[in-house]
C-alpha cells in the first residue's frame, strides 16, 4: 500500500469527484469599515467554483457580520461597482485569479451604514440586558460556537472543534506538521502502512520499570501507531516522537533528508531493541546483499566482497549529463552497469601480477522483503556552490520485476519483486488540511491515503488515490518551474519508493483491534481516556472567557494579568478569582474590591456593574470571544471610602491642582463628567472634588501635544471643547492677579510649559579629566566648602539656605565678570586638530572662570535667593515639594545637594521647537508626586512658534556651528533654560554612580548651552570635550550641531562625555582609509582626523602624516601619498595638492577619504587628466595580473590602448580591453571573464556608452586577442570552479544565494544532546 499525501491543501465537498484537480482561489479581505479593523486581514482559500453569493456567506461568517449588511469591492480598483450579493457566477468567471495568486478585496459599508455584528444565530442583535460591549467588533480568530446575548448561552457564533475531533472521510488519521517535518511525517506514514513493521512493533512490550517512556523511541512510535489506527481525531501530534529523539523545538524548523532519517531511526531502534525478539527486525525486513567485484579482462580472475544494504540509491541524472534516466528500471540498470578500469586507472591483477584492464561493478545477490529505493534528487551545483533539487521525470511501475538485476550465477533461484507498497516524499512541501478556526494558528496535517484496496473496508474509503495522482509524483516540468530548483523548493516528486516482495505466504495483514496483544489493548484504553479528558477540557476552554485584567495594587502599583473565567460564573465569583489572581489577600479586604469595565489605552473607566453581582460573566462580557475590545480593572478602596458608580456615557477627567505660590502641581484627582455639561457646571464639579473656589477657578485642558487650552467660555459644553473618553486638565484658583494677563504670558502657562518640556538625561562623565578634582568641583568651592562633588550626606555640607545666602554677594560679582570670562575662555581654546593636545582645564581662580558658574543677572539672582530663603521654608523642609529651586546658576545647582531628585515619572519626551524662554519671563518650579500619565510632552511657545524646528541626530550632522558669536560672547548668555544636575542614585544606575550624572533640563536648550552647563562637572571647557548620544545596542554617535536643541532627546536617554577637542565652525571629522589595490582586502581603516573649510589638500596631508606616524606607525613622505574620493569601496577622484576644501572639494560631516601610497612622485597634475586602474587577463594561464595605474591626458580610447601597449608589450592591433563590472576591485571568475565581459567596445572616447569612464578609479581589463584560452579537463575545470567560487565568496562578490546552514540529523538515545557548558 502506498502513502501519498493529499494533493490539495484542503478537502473539498463530496460532490467534487477529484479533489486534486480543483483549482483554488486565495482571497485576502481588508475590513475598512472602521479604524479598529482597518489593519486586520481575513484570508479565505476557496474552490474556484465557489459562487459570489457563497463568498459573501463565508466572509460574513468569518468576519462576524450579518450577511447583506456590507459590500465587497476590488482592493486595487475600489472605484468599481461592488460584487453582486446574489450572483451565482463562480469566482473563476468573476475575474478572480486561481493558482495561489492573491486576490485583494475590501469589505466596505453598504449604503453608508456600517455592517451589523452577528450577535446570535439568526444574525440579529438582541442587546436587551447587555451593555454596549455586545455591539463591539471583535478582532482575531472567530469566536466559539453558540450565541451571544441569550440567557441560556453566552458564546459567540460558529466555533467548533469537530474538525480536529472527527476523523477524516478518508478513514485515516493524519499527522500534524510541527513546522518543517514533512519528511518525518512521510516516513512515519510509510512505516505505519507497512503491516509487517506495524505488527512487529505492536508485539513489542514496553517495560516502564526499565526505561523512561518519554525517551523510549519504540514506545512513542507504538503510541503513535495506536493513535493512527484507533483515534477519532482528524490528526495527531508528533511532538512526543521527536521528544523521544532528543530533539528540541528548533529541530522542527530544520529540513532534513527522509532517507537519512530512515537510516538514523533504524539504527536507534536496533539499539533500543537489543536483547528482544525485535532485535533483528530491521535486517529481516529491509536488508539485502550485493557483490562488489573487479574482474580482470586478461585472465578472467575476479576479486569480490559481499556487502549488505538497507536501501539502493538511484541516480536521477548522471554527473555531467544533460539527460536524466527516464525510469526506475533504467536507473537500476545503470546502478549495476560495470565500468572499465584502463589507462592510469588499471587494476593490479593478483593472478597476472601486473596492472591490467579490468571491469568493476555491482551484482545483486539477495533482495530484501521490503526493498527501499532512494531517488537521488539532491545534487550539488559547483557553479552556484549550493544544493539543488532535480525535478526530472522518472517513472516507476506498480509492480517491479527484479529478475533482470539478480546475479543468476550466484543466486540460482531468482527473485521477483513486486510493488504493493511505495512511498512518495513531498520534500520541502507540506500538503495539508487546514483546520478552520480550531486554534489561533493553522495546523498542517499530512494525511496518508491507502492505494491498495484489498479489504472491503478500504474499498469504501474516499477519496481514492488514482493512477493519475501517482503519475504526478513522477516529476518533470510543471508550470514555469525551471530545469532544477533550489534545495528548499517545494515539489511533490517521488523521492523514496518502498516495494514489498510478492509472497502470499509472507504477506501479512494489519492486526485488527480485537486481535491486539493485551498490552496494546491497555494502551488503547489509556489513550481513549486521555482523548476523552482532552475533549472535556476543550469544552471547558470553549466556554471560558479570557480577558486582560488590570489592578492598581496598593503595594506593587499597576499590575497586569489575564482573567480566565467560565461564562456561567457570576460577577461575584469572577471578582473573587481576580482578587486572588492579583495577590490582594492580606492587603485589601475582598469587600473593598470590584470589577469595572476599563479601556487601558485611554485609561478610561467605562462603566461599573452595580446590582449585577449575580449576572453571569458571559452576559456581561458579550459572549466568549477570542479577544475583547475592552479590559477589566479590579478597583480597590479604603474601608471608609465608598465606590463611585461609573455610568456609560461618562468621560473621565484627571484633574491636577496647580499652586502658583509654591509653584507645585499636585497628583491627579479623578472626576467623571458628561460631555453635554457646560464649563460652568464642570467647574462646580471640580470645586466639589477639590475644595477650590469655582468663581476664581481657571481650567486648562491639555487636548494633545503642544496644545494647552484655557476653558473660558462658561456656556460651552465639554464636547465642544474637545473632551474625549479620558482627559487631563490643570486647575488653579487663587487671588493672584495672574489671571488678568494674557494666558500665554501668565505664570500658570509658564509653569505648565516648563512642566511639559523638562526631560531627564543620564550623563556619563569621562574616566579621567585633565584637570584635578579641585578643578571639577570649582563651582562647589565658589559657593561652599564641600570638596566632594557627589556627596549626598547632608551632614557634610551646609544647608541650602546658608549656602545661598553666603554666595549671594559672590555671585553678584561673578555676574559682572561673565562676559570677560567668556572672552578669556574663548581665547584659550586650542585650535589644534589633535583631540588631546593642549587641553586646558579651568583654573581654580574664580575670577577667570566665572562663566562656568553664572547664568543669570544680579537682580534676578537676588530676587530668587530672597524668595527661596525667605519663602515657604525651602525645598528641604517640605517633602512634597522637590522643586523649591528656581531658575539659577550652575553654582547654585551644584551647591544644592540636599534637594531631592525629580520624579522620573513626571518627565516625558517628544519633539519640541528650538525656542528659548527668556530669563525675564520668570522661572517656573516643577512639582513632584504626579502619576506617570500626567505629563504631556513639549509645548510650543506661542511667542516663538514661527521659528524653524530643528533636530539633533547623528545622521544629520553636517557641519557645526560655533557656540560663540563674532564678538566672542557666549550665545547661551542671553537666554537661560532650566538645568539641574545631581549625582546618579543606585536606583538609576546603569553605569558607575561615581561617573554618572542625572540631569534635568529643558529640552529647548541648545547643545552649546547644554555643554556650557556641563563644564563644571567635566572639568574642562566645552570646546575640550565631545557629546555622544547612546542609541540602542550601546551604539554611540557624536552630536555636533551646537545651535540645535535637545528636542529629539527623551527621558532617560544616555549621553557619554569624551575628552577631546570639539569641532569648531567649518570643521569636519573625516575617516581616512588606506587604498591597497593589490591586497585581498583593498580598504583598510587608518585614523579619524579633522579637515577644515578653506584648508588645501596639501595642508591636510601635512597635518595627517604625523598622526599616521604616531598612531599607525606609517612613516610616509608627503610627495609619495595622495588623497582621493571614497564612494563605498570604490576609489574616485584624485585630490590635487592645490585643491581647497569646500571650494574645489565638497566635504561633509563623517566624510571618508582614501589615502594611497605611491611608488613614485605624483603624476596627476591637472583635473583634465584621468587615472585608470588596469589589470591584464591571460587566457593561456587562466590568471589575472596585478593592478597597474595608467594616467591619461584625455578620454581617448586610442591613448588608453597605447598606454596599455607600453606596459604590456602587446601589439596595438592585438590589444583588447573591457570595463570591469560592480564595485572595486570588480572581481569576476576566471572561467567567465573571457566570455562575459564586453571586450573591445566600438567607441572612440571613454565617456560614452557602454564605458562611461568619466572619473578616476575606473577598472579596465585587457588581453592579447591572439592568446588562446587554456584547455581544461573536466576535473581541472571543476577544481578551478571550486577555487573561484570560494575566492569570490570570500571577497563578497557575486553572492546571490545564501543557503540556510544545514544541521546534521541526529537521534539521541540518552534523551538529548550534551550541552556545552561554555555555551549560553
UniProtKB/TrEMBL annotation:
EC assignment: the record states 3.4.19.12
Q: Name the residue ranges with Acidic residues bias.
A: 952-965
Answer yes or no on keyword Transferase.
no
Q: Residue ranges of the USP domain?
A: 173-502
One Gene Ontology term, aspect cellular component: nucleus
Coiled coil location: none
Q: Describe the reaction catalysed, as an equation.
A: Thiol-dependent hydrolysis of ester, thioester, amide, peptide and isopeptide bonds formed by the C-terminal Gly of ubiquitin (a 76-residue protein attached to proteins as an intracellular targeting signal)
State the residue spans of region: Disordered: 102-149, 406-434, 814-851, 869-968
Q: Where is the composition biased (Polar residues)?
A: 116-132, 415-434, 841-851
Which species expresses this protein natively?
Answer: Amphiprion ocellaris (Clown anemonefish)
GO MF, any single term: cysteine-type deubiquitinase activity
Q: Which PROSITE patterns match?
A: USP_1, USP_3
GO biological process assignments: protein deubiquitination; proteolysis
Name of the protein this chain belongs to: Ubiquitin carboxyl-terminal hydrolase 47
Q: Which UniProt keywords apply?
A: Hydrolase, Protease, Thiol protease, Ubl conjugation pathway
Stretches with biased composition (Basic and acidic residues): 879-895
Q: Name one Pfam family in it.
A: Ubiquitin_2
Q: Where is the composition biased (Low complexity)?
A: 814-833, 898-914
Tell me the CDD domains matching this sequence: peptidase_C19C
Amino acid at each position: 500500500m502506498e502513502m501519498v499525501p493529499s494533493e490539495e491543501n484542503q478537502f473539498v465537498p463530496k460532490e467534487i469527484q477529484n479533489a486534486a484537480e480543483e483549482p483554488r482561489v486565495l482571497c485576502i479581505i481588508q475590513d475598512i469599515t472602521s479604524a479598529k479593523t482597518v489593519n486586520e486581514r481575513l484570508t479565505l482559500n476557496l474552490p474556484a467554483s465557489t459562487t459570489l453569493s457563497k463568498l459573501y456567506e463565508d466572509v460574513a461568517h468569518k468576519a462576524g457580520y450579518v450577511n447583506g449588511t456590507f459590500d465587497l469591492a476590488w482592493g486595487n480598483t475600489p472605484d468599481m461597482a461592488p460584487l453582486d450579493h446574489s450572483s451565482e457566477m463562480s469566482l473563476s468567471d468573476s475575474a478572480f485569479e486561481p493558482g495561489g495568486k492573491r486576490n485583494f478585496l475590501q469589505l466596505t459599508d453598504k449604503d453608508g451604514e456600517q455592517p451589523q455584528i452577528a450577535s446570535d444565530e439568526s444574525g440579529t442583535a438582541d442587546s436587551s440586558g447587555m451593555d454596549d460591549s455586545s455591539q463591539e467588533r471583535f478582532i482575531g480568530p472567530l469566536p466559539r460556537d453558540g450565541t451571544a446575548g441569550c440567557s441560556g448561552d453566552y458564546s459567540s457564533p460558529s466555533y467548533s472543534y469537530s474538525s480536529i475531533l472527527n476523523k477524516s472521510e478518508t478513514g485515516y488519521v493524519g499527522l500534524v506538521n510541527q513546522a518543517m517535518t514533512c519528511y518525518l511525517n512521510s516516513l512515519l506514514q510509510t512505516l505505519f502502512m507497512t503491516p509487517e513493521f506495524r505488527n512487529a512493533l505492536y508485539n513489542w512490550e514496553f517495560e516502564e520499570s526499565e526505561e523512561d517512556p518519554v525517551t523510549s523511541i519504540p514506545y512513542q512510535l507504538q503510541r503513535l501507531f495506536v493513535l493512527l489506527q484507533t483515534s477519532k481525531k482528524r490528526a495527531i501530534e508528533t511532538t512526543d516522537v521527536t521528544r523521544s529523539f532528543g530533539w528540541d523545538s528548533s529541530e522542527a524548523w530544520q529540513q532534513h533528508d527522509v532517507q537519512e532519517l530512515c537510516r538514523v531511526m533504524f539504527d536507534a531502534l536496533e539499539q533500543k531493541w537489543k536483547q528482544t525478539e525485535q532485535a533483528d527486525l530491521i535486517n529481516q525486513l529491509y536488508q539485502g546483499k550485493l557483490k562488489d567485484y573487479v574482474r580482470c579482462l586478461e585472465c578472467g580472475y575476479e576479486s569480490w566482497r559481499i556487502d549488505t544494504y538497507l536501501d539502493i540509491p538511484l541516480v536521477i541524472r548522471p554527473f555531467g549529463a544533460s539527460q536524466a534516466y527516464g525510469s526506475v528500471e533504467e536507473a537500476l540498470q545503470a546502478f549495476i552497469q560495470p565500468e572499465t578500469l584502463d589507462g592510469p586507472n588499471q587494476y593490479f591483477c593478483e593472478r597476472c601480477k601486473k596492472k591490467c584492464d579490468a571491469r568493476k561493478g555491482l551484482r545483486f545477490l539477495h533482495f530484501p522483503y521490503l526493498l527501499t529505493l532512494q531517488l537521488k534528487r539532491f545534487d550539488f551545483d559547483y557553479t552556484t556552490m549550493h544544493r539543488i533539487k532535480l525535478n526530472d521525470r522518472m517513472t516507476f511501475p506498480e509492480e517491479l520485476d527484479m529478475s533482470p538485476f539478480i546475479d543468476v550465477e550466484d543466486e540460482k533461484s531468482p527473485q521477483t519483486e513486486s510493488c504493493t507498497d511505495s512511498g512518495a516524499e513531498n520534500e520541502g512541501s507540506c500538503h495539508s488540511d487546514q483546520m478552520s478556526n480550531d486554534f489561533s494558528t493553522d495546523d498542517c496535517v499530512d494525511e496518508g491515503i491507502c492505494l491498495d484496496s484489498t479489504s472491503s473496508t478500504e474499498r469504501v474509503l474516499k477519496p481514492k488515490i488514482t493512477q493519475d495522482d501517482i503519475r504526478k509524483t513522477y516529476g518533470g516540468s510543471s508550470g514555469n518551474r525551471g530545469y532544477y530548483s533550489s534545495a528548499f523548493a517545494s515539489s511533490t516528486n517521488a523521492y523514496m519508493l518502498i516495494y514489498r516482495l510478492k509472497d502470499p505466504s509472507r504477506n501479512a495483514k494489519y492486526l485488527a483491534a480485537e486481535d491486539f496483544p493485551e498490552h496494546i489493548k491497555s494502551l488503547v484504553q489509556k489513550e481513549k481516556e486521555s482523548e476523552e479528558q482532552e475533549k472535556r477540557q476543550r469544552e471547558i476552554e470553549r466556554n471560558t472567557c479570557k480577558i486582560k485584567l488590570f489592578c492598581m495594587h496598593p503595594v506593587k502599583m499597576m499590575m497586569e494579568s489575564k482573567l480566565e473565567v467560565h461564562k456561567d460564573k457570576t460577577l461575584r465569583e469572577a471578582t473573587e478569582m481576580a482578587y486572588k489572581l492579583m495577590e490582594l489577600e492580606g492587603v485589601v479586604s475582598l469587600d473593598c474590591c470590584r470589577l469595572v469595565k476599563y479601556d487601558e489605552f485611554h485609561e478610561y473607566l467605562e462603566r461599573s456593574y452595580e446590582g449585577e453581582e449575580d449576572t453571569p460573566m458571559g452576559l456581561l462580557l458579550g459572549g466568549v470571544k477570542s479577544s475583547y475590545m475592552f479590559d477589566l480593572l479590579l478597583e480597590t478602596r479604603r474601608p471608609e471610602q465608598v465606590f463611585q458608580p461609573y455610568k456609560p456615557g461618562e468621560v473621565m477627567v484627571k484633574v491636577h491642582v496647580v499652586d502658583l505660590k509654591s509653584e507645585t502641581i499636585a497628583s491627579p484627582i479623578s472626576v467623571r463628567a458628561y460631555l453635554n455639561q457646560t464649563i460652568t457646571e464642570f467647574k462646580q464639579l471640580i470645586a466639589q472634588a477639590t475644595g477650590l473656589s469655582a468663581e476664581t477657578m481657571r481650567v486648562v485642558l491639555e487636548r494633545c501635544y503642544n496644545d494647552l487650552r484655557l476653558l473660558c467660555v462658561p456656556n460651552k459644553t465639554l464636547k465642544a471643547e474637545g473632551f474625549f473618553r479620558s482627559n487631563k486638565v490643570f486647575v488653579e484658583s487663587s487671588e493672584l492677579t495672574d489671571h488678568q494677563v494674557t494666558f500665554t504670558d501668565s505664570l500658570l502657562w509658564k509653569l505648565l510649559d516648563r512642566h511639559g518640556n523638562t526631560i531627564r538625561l543620564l550623563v556619563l562623565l569621562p574616566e579621567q579629566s585633565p584637570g584635578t578634582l579641585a578643578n571639577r568641583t570649582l563651582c562647589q568651592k565658589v559657593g561652599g566648602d564641600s570638596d566632594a562633588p557627589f556627596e549626598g550626606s547632608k551632614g557634610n555640607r551646609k544647608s541650602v539656605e546658608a549656602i545661598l545666602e553666603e554666595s549671594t554677594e559672590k555671585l553678584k560679582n561673578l555676574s559682572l565678570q561673565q562676559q570677560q570670562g567668556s572672552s578669556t575662555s574663548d581665547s584659550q581654546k586650542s585650535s589644534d586638530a589633535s583631540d588631546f593636545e593642549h587641553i586646558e582645564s579651568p583654573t581654580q581662580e574664580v575670577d577667570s572662570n566665572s562663566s562656568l558658574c553664572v547664568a543669570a543677572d544680579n537682580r534676578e539672582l537676588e530676587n530668587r535667593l530672597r524668595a527661596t530663603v525667605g519663602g515657604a521654608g525651602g525645598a528641604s523642609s517640605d517633602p512634597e515639594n522637590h522643586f523649591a529651586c528656581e531658575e539659577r546658576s550652575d553654582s547654585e545647582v551644584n551647591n544644592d545637594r540636599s534637594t531631592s531628585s525629580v520624579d522620573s515619572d513626571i518627565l516625558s519626551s517628544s519633539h519640541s521647537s528650538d525656542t528659548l524662554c527668556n530669563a525675564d519671563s520668570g522661572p517656573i518650579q516643577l512639582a513632584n508626586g504626579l502619576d506617570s500619565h500626567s505629563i504631556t510632552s513639549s509645548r510650543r511657545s506661542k511667542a516663538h512658534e514661527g521659528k524653524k524646528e530643528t533636530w539633533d541626530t547623528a545622521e544629520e550632522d553636517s557641519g557645526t556651528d560655533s557656540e560663540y558669536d563674532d564678538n566672542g560672547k557666549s550665545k547661551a548668555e542671553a537666554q537661560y533654560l532650566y538645568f539641574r544636575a545631581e549625582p546618579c542614585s543606585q536606583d538609576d544606575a546603569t553605569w558607575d554612580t561615581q561617573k554618572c550624572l542625572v540631569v534635568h533640563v529643558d529640552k529647548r536648550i541648545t547643545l552649546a548651552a547644554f555643554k556650557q552647563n556641563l563644564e563644571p562637572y567635566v572639568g574642562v571647557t566645552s570646546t575640550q570635550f565631545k557629546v555622544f548620544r547612546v542609541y540602542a545596542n550601546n551604539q554611540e554617535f557624536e552630536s555636533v550641531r551646537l545651535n540645535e536643541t535637545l528636542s529629539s532627546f527623551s527621558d532617560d536617554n544616555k549621553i557619554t562625555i569624551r575628552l577631546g577637542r570639539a569641532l569648531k565652525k567649518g570643521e569636519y571629522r573625516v575617516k581616512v582609509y588606506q587604498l591597497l589595490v593589490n591586497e585581498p582586502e583593498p580598504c583598510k581603516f587608518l585614523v579619524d582626523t579633522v579637515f577644515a573649510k578653506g584648508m588645501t589638500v596639501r595642508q591636510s596631508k601635512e597635518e595627517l602624516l604625523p598622526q599616521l606616524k604616531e598612531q599607525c606607525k606609517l612613516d610616509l613622505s608627503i610627495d609619495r601619498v595622495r588623497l582621493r574620493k571614497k564612494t563605498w569601496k570604490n576609489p574616485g577622484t584624485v585630490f590635487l595638492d592645490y585643491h581647497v576644501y569646500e571650494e574645489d572639494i565638497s566635504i561633509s560631516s563623517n566624510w571618508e577619504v582614501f589615502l594611497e601610497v605611491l611608488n613614485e612622485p605624483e603624476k596627476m597634475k591637472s583635473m583634465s587628466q584621468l587615472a585608470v586602474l588596469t589589470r591584464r587577463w591571460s587566457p593561456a594561464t587562466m590568471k589575472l595580473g596585478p593592478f597597474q595605474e595608467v594616467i591619461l591626458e584625455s578620454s581617448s580610447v586610442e591613448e588608453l590602448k597605447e598606454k596599455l601597449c607600453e606596459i604590456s608589450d602587446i601589439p596595438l592591433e592585438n590589444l583588447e580591453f573591457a570595463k570591469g563590472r560592480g564595485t572595486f576591485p570588480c572581481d569576476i571568475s576566471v572561467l567567465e571573464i573571457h566570455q562575459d565581459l564586453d571586450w573591445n567596445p566600438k567607441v572612440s572616447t571613454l565617456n560614452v556608452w557602454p564605458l562611461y569612464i568619466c572619473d578616476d578609479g575606473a577598472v579596465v581589463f585587457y588581453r592579447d586577442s591572439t592568446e588562446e584560452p587554456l584547455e581544461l579537463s573536466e576535473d581541472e575545470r571543476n577544481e578551478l570552479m571550486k577555487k573561484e567560487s570560494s575566492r569570490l565568496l570570500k571577497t563578497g562578490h557575486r553572492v546571490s544565494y545564501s543557503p540556510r546552514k544545514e544541521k546534521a540529523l541526529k537521534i539521541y538515545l540518552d534523551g538529548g544532546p550534551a550541552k556545552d557548558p561554555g555555551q549560553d
